[in-house]
Write a structure and sequence with these properties.
With 148 residues, this protein is an alpha/beta fold. The chain is 39% helix and 19% strand. The chain is built from five helices and five strands, in the order βααβαβαββα. The protein binds ligand CA2.
């Protein structure tokens, strides 16, 4: 049976492509989803792709992915820098988690340097724009193969 990856996107990522293209690129989230689906199919992975502006909804999806033994690619947006709830949800589950950011968060404001996700993530990818999602799918495919 095909393994499943959850790609979860946090607050304001629904605005991608509409503003701040110098920082986040010109792709919309729908463009990114389309490219992810194409690559996931090549790797024979089934894909759950979601975005929410609500912290609790992201927690629910992280728990759901854990219950289904799925991998998680998480761009938690601004919650990355604030959310103990996301940290705890990842910690409570056994899913491998790749933290992802479009921008290089360490080349930006100081408040973006702190991540509550990094200490409980398997790995982190940032600074490659939309391509980061594709790099993360490749990395997750290997992680899930090693796990089985
Ligand atoms: O670089 C990333 O992927 C971030 O997770 C994006 C978050 C930011 O708070 C993190 O520090 C880094 C912000 C997403 C907001 O996206 C927008 C897109 C277009 C216009 C305005 C916001």
């Amino acid at each position: 049976m095909a393994k499943t990856i959850y790609i979860l996107n946090g607050p304001n990522l629904n605005l991608l492509g509409q503003r701040e293209p110098d920082i986040y690129g010109s792709l919309s989230l729908a463009d990114i989803e389309r490219d992810c689906r194409e690559l996931a199919e090549e790797f024979d992975l089934s894909l759950e792709f979601h975005q929410s502006n609500h912290e609790g909804q992201l927690v629910d999806w992280i728990q759901q992915a854990g219950n289904n033994s799925s991998g998680i690619i998480l761009n938690a947006g601004a919650y990355t820098h604030t959310s103990v709830a996301l940290h705890d949800a990842i910690r409570a589950g056994s899913s491998p988690v790749i933290e992802l950011h479009l921008s290089n968060i360490h080349a930006r404001e100081e408040f973006r340097h702190k991540s509550y996700v990094s200490p409980v993530a398997t790995g982190v990818i940032y600074g490659f724009g939309g391509d980061g999602y594709l790099l993360a799918i490749r990395a997750m495919s290997k992680l899930l193969d090693t796990k089985s």
